[in-house]
Amino acid sequence: MAIRLLGAGGAAPRWRLRAASVAEAWARTGGRGQVAVCPPDEDPLTLGWDAGSAALAAAGITADHVDALYWGTSRPPFAEGPSHAFCAAALGCSDHVAGALLSGSEHAGIDALLAAADAVAAGSSRIALVIASDARRPGPGSPFEARCGAGAAAVVLGASGGTAALGTRVTRSRPFVDRYRGDGEDDVRDLYDARLFREEIFVPVVAEVARALAAFDVQAWSIPDPDGRLGATVAKLVGHGAPESTSVYAAVGDTGAAAPLLGALGSFAAPGLVGVIGTGGGRTTGVLIDVETPVPGAARAVAALSGGEDVSYTSALRARGQLTPAGETIPMGVPPESALFVRGADEMLGLLGGRCVDCHTISTPPSIHPTCVACGGPKLEPVAIAREGQVHTYVVNYTMPAPFVAPLPIAVLDMDDGARLMLQVTGDGTDLAIGTRVELVLRKYAHERGVPVYGFKARPVRSPEEVTT
Amino acid sequence: MAWNRVAVVGAGLIKMGELFEQSYEQMAAGAFDAAVQSVDKGFEPAQVEAAFVATQRGTLWGQEGIGGNTIPTAIGLAGIPCTRIENACPSGSDAFRVGAMAVASGVHDVVLVIGVEKMRDKSTEEGLLSRAAAGHPIYTRGETAPVLFAPFATRHMHEFGTTREMLAAVAVKNHYNGARDPYAHFQNEITVDDVLASPPVCHPLHLLDCCPQTDGAAAVLLTSAERATEFTDAPVYVAGFGVATDHPYLHEKDSFIELKATRLAAQRAYAMAGVGPGDLDCAEVHDCFTITEILDIEDLGFVAKGDGGRATLDGETSLTGRIPVNTSGGLLAKGHPIGATGVAQLTECWWQLRGAAGERQVAMRNGYALQHNAGGRGSGVSVVNILTNHRDS
Question: Is B211 an annotated catalytic residue?
Fold first, then answer.
């Protein structure tokens, strides 16, 4: 059975950390390029949501039609817990959605793609959403740090339709240890010996997989590039110039489990056979994707990786939780395992409101509105709140206790369906004015005692001209 | 006709400030003593038949269990009935209203209303700012006190062209008045430039647009209009009062250019007192932030909607202006010990109506003064009390 690509999406956090900033902090010379790093409110779940939502929109499919969600990340937000369920709920998938969370190494992204493909081939899934996302936490001072990026890619798979097809795949398994993180460890350890890794492991194994795929007429490659040179080394061995994935690595760094698909998105925008290789955890897998006509969303996904704002090394460390203030932080008033979360799960991840059957006013959130906020009517029906609107008024809060990070913009929003919301806004507030158009995006509100809290924030909508510049 | 069934026969407060050296109980005793000493013809503490105490948030000093029974022991009157009133920032105003109703009902003849608040025993991060982490995990997260008022400033500036200089004029005026009030937390004058150059707290509000964190206590003694002359020849009467609520969350509000609860409470108070804003000689209004006073003077009917910034800049609310506002220095200079704030404002009105406000004394034409607080999550409650210095009007 054919496995078809119906749409694609990509995402990267908005922060960029220059390798030179990392080098300067450790009194080293050099440092080329940049990586994407997460602000405090982004992580593999929010990045995956961004990419997954974009892929579904590009495919013209609503989330409730997805019957399986396959998500690959080396760093699920809950080491053990409801990561997959939170992701599915925030995307708006039905509560019958199947699929799996694949993790354990950078190979997880390829694992998710192939598991979804197998489900479609087996007929157990009609529409499968594949998300590969990552934001690893490198050890401070390790060479890996200046290379470690963050990002997400997503594709929608189905048995028919679409503009591209998954084809041949090959895996080479060899039990070696490269970059890894032990149980109970927060930071990814760097290579034991970079030269040993390069010459004895990476190049022989990845080149073997690439040669197997190169038996076909591969026109574009996404090849792992852990140091900024190895991707080109492997491509040269199969008679290719710099792999097409090079520009993605240059824009956002090594995005771990997201890297194979993310590096291929640009190639999905033009006809031809694309070789996609992922490696990690002692396994290397390549898969061919035959692009007949441009995959919907692919070009836009690549554009989403450009731009971003430069941040300092200390900002990146603070956001990753590697630089923390002395003293106790202010505990969250409401622990995520509490009763309020039981009542509020729908309104936080699903963004529900209650519409008055009499006057049609939408009251939010439903859990605190037994009656209509406008007319006091007792009959409210649940509705999904519009995801776009405009700023009615706003503030930028500069004075908050740790772990809050100033400046924190907060806005009252007039949503397009008439609902009013008051939510935090992404960014620093300098792009806000009354009337600014916004869209709602999933973000992390807090992280305490190892538990993340997710909800929607408003993000100013950039015009198409701004996206391309 | 004004209501005038209840009279204020004594009022007093302690010097506001960061009172690390005084306990909650000591502050209460100080304010009670000041009120007792203020009674013209003498007053024995044992004459108090019942007390209403306003304390908004015991958690600010780690004592949420604080109850009505704390105060009688502190002031040497253990055994009397005493009830704590909590109604957000208007707690003190509302305790006064409830105390007046207790007298008017005939159940008690002499009632003490006392407001006490400890704002600084805990650090700012542990105390006031920690509300940023409280409440609904996404709808209220990051919501410190300025977040409840700054959105109104943004919108007011947008719709009416109100400027930061106009906001600053509120702080400049109130500090000028505070510099003439020996009970004020801050007794220094400031300039518009000082306000503009102060650090941002919550855009568009800067540090000097915000009231300080202040410990304090204030007390008033109420009795029936009939018995008032037993205590003084110059009683002040409760002409009327009004209370109103509004939706507590900001996103539930229709408008960000007015505080609806204030407008409704004022309508009720004016109707009960049989007067209008033009009859007032002065007012103590809730200026937790500069924008709040601009909203107040519009919603209380002193100026047209949208005109509050201009009117302030033009001096209409200064000590010698058309309607002097916050002659005590207001929350911005005198301070905002929450439960005590309303009672302290009423004390200022009592002084003004009796011609005892010293350097701050304003001209008395009609003998009416208004006192106002607004507060709660999103100014969800407002209380207005109107006092007068003559019984028949």
Answer: no
A39-56 pLDDT per residue, tens: 999 999 999 999 999 999
Q: Where are the alpha helices (DSSP H) in A92-164?
A: 108-122
Average pLDDT of the segment spanning B329-352: 98
**pLDDT tops 80 at residue B392:** no
Tell me which residues of chain A have a C-beta less than 8 Å from any C-beta of chain B: 330-334, 336, 340-341, 344, 348, 363-365, 368, 373, 392-402, 404, 407-408, 410, 412-413, 420-424, 429, 434, 445-446, 453, 455-456
How many angstroms separate the CA of residue B324 from the nearest CA in chain A? 30
What does the pLDDT read at residue B374?
A: 97
| B89 counts as catalytic | yes
- Across the range B281-294, mean pLDDT stands at 98
Is the previous residue joined to A403 through a cis bond, with omega within 30 degrees of 0? yes
Rounded to 10 deg, the angle between the A339-349 and A83-91 helix axes is 40
Q: In chain A, which residues have their Cβ closer than 8 Å to the Cβ of B137?
A: 332-334, 336, 340-341, 344, 348, 445-446, 453, 455
pLDDT confidence tier of residue A467, bands split at 50, 70 and 90: very low
Tell me which DSSP letter residue A328 carries: P
Q: What is the pLDDT of residue B136?
A: 75
What does the mean pLDDT of chain A come to?
93
pLDDT digits 0-9 by tens, A377-401: 999 999 999 999 999 999 999 998 7
State the average pLDDT over residues B90-109: 98
List of residues 6+ apart from A204 with CB closer than 8 A: none
User: What integer pLDDT is reported at residue A335 of this predicted model?
Assistant: 62
CB within 8 Å: B158 and A398: no
Contact at CB, B126 and A429, closer than 8 angstroms: no
Q: SS3 string of chain B?
A: CCCCCEEEEEEEECCCECCCCCCHHHHHHHHHHHHHHCCCCCCCHHHCCEEEEECCCHHHHCCCCCCCCHHHHHCCCCCCCEEEECCCCCHHHHHHHHHHHHHHCCCCCEEEEEEEECCCCCCCCCCHHHHHHCCCCCCCCCCCHHHHCHHHHHHHHHHHCCCHHHHHHHHHHHHHHHCCCCCCCCCCCCCHHHHHHCCEEEECEEHHHECCCCEEEEEEEEEECCCHHHCCCCCEEEEEEEEEECCCCHHHCCCCCCCHHHHHHHHHHHHHHCCCHHHCCEEECCCCEHHHHHHHHHHCCCCCCCCHHHHHHCCCCCCCCCCCECCCCHHHHCCCCHHHHHHHHHHHHHHHHCCCCHHHCCCCCCCEEEEEEEECCCCCEEEEEEEECCCCC
In the numeric block, which tokens belong to residue B1? 């006709």
